[in-house]
Amino acid sequence: MQNIISNPDQAHEHDSGEERKLIGDRGDYFLNRMQGETGVNISACYQCERCTNACPVSHFMDIKPHQAIRYVQLGWREDLLKSSTIWMCLSCEMCTTYCPNEVDVAEIINHLRNMAAHSSITPKEKSLAVFHQTFLEVLQKSGKVNEFRLMNAYYSKPDILKERVKQGILIEDLLLGMTLLRKGRLKLFTPKSRAIKEIKKVYSQTRGEIV
Amino acid sequence: MRLSFYPGCSLEGMANDYARSIDAVFKNLSIDLVEIEDWSCCGATAAHSLNQAMSVVLPARNLAAAEKMELDIVSPCAMCFNRLRFSQNMIKKKVFDIPWPVTGDIRVHDMTRFLAEPPMIKSIKERILRPLNGLRVVCYYGCQMVRPPKITGYTDYENPQTMDRIAAAAGAQVIDWSYKATCCGASIGIARREIGESLTKRILQKARQSGAEAIVVSCPLCQSNLDMIQKDRSKRHTPVFYFTELLRLSFEEHGDPKWFKMHFTDPVPLLRAKGLLS
After folding, report:
1. CA of A144: which chain B residue's CA is closest?
2. Secondary structure E strands in B98-195
3. Percentage with pLDDT > 70 across chain B
4. Which of A122, A143, B31, B241 is deepest in the core (most CB within 10 A)?
């Protein structure tokens, strides 16, 4: 591949292909909101890319961690909520740990993930979003998470089952499940917590319901 | 000595063998672990990903229960430990309302660091009946136990030593390596398995290249990830032990192959070859 920097014509072509986004009326509203809600000094980022280099899954992300921070500064909210980045993040905290300016990158990505979950935008990595959702559903039903119930609930989601069939890994998954059962690692029944009602109540409250 | 014990969901299911080995080891060390009354899930990755308030409130319920018991918490699971500490931190900031009376002042230990304190190491050494001579291991810590250091309190987060010290006390030959705290990809391992596997495979490969015969872990998800990936693909097997399984093995006169029946990668041949199991 030709180096676009050494070829001015091509570089120009590359630039003109993308629509330039003006900050315009956005101002720094989104940046201030994010800084307020996370308590992180996002303006301190000077794009050294240490976070992206530390990230074990940055090569699976469409917006790299350091770019995500820049996008927040520019107020490009909808691009972030539509990205695979926010779902791909493992929360391994490498970025946060190695940022020389103590920008809590993982917390920002996590906060964006929360925002995306409460928005009308379809998650780019739906299987991951649905997995988290399923986990919370199972948690609410029993106060604890039993792996067997979790996997059953996850595979019962219509899109997930379809996707697993399409990828041809359903049989492999079932065989793995059988082995886990045989080895006694999947327990069909585990005791529930008595806290189900309390947990359901708080959960509703955090979603803005008056209980 | 008495401590409250927060086992977490995994120890009732996938990591039931971890729970049993912890029980045996703490009995042997004469430390009384009292399970937290009616504990509930910490919310793990899902809660903080989708509902940040729940990620503070859920662990707070368990903190409140432990505060009622007036006992410091010891947590065997890296994720639970991380979430409990995080919740404590947020309780102090008073950003979210907690429906239970909780101050967040109680101490939360991760089990490896608790057992790696000098008096504990001494007490472990006194109880060793069969040192694990000649067993070459690497210790794998993963992410949630050590990062972010501001939450976990680890100062040596790049090269943590807690399990290294414990395994060495049990007589194993502990090898230094560079992938101690590299993420194994557990949080996306089910929904995006190919990505999870690519991360896990790398850790396994590096452990083998460093000359280890086995990997020692403390996190239930790290264990199942590293163990299950070896289910059929490779001819070479590298067993993945919980650190308490190794301690138990060195504490008791006669080990039992049944202790390891939940493992995918059968460690029994290795242990027999080393004369650690009859």
Report:
1. B41
2. 108-110, 136-140, 173-174
3. 99
4. B241
Report pLDDT for A211.
83
| Average pLDDT of chain B, as a whole number | 94
CB atoms closer than 10 angstroms to residue B32:
13
Chain B residues inside the 8 Å CB shell of A169? 193
End-to-end CA distance of chain B: 34
CB < 8 Å from B in window 121-180 of A:
125, 127-133, 135-136, 139, 143-148, 151, 154, 169, 176, 179-180
Distance of alpha carbon B265 from alpha carbon B73, whole angstroms: 32
**Mean pLDDT, rounded, for B208-226:** 96
Q: What is the pLDDT of residues A77-126, one digit of tens each?
A: 999 999 999 999 999 999 999 999 999 999 999 999 999 999 999 999 99
Other CB atoms within 10 A of residue A17 CB: 7
Check: CB of residue B202 under 8 Å from CB of residue A138. Answer: no
d(CA A170, CA A175): 9
Chain B nearest CA to A158, separation (Å)? 14
Which CATH entry fits the domain spanning A23-117: 3.30.70.920, 1.10.860.10, 1.20.5.170, 1.10.1060.10?
1.10.1060.10
Domain boundaries, chain A: 23-117, 126-206
* Ordered structural domains, chain B, with CATH: 2-112 (3.40.50), 120-273 (3.40.50.11810)
How far is residue B187's CA from residue A89's CA, in Å, rounded to a whole number?
A: 9
pLDDT(B182) > 70: yes
**Cβ–Cβ under 8 Å, residues B222 and B184:** yes
| C-alpha–C-alpha distance, residues B227 and B264, integer Å | 6
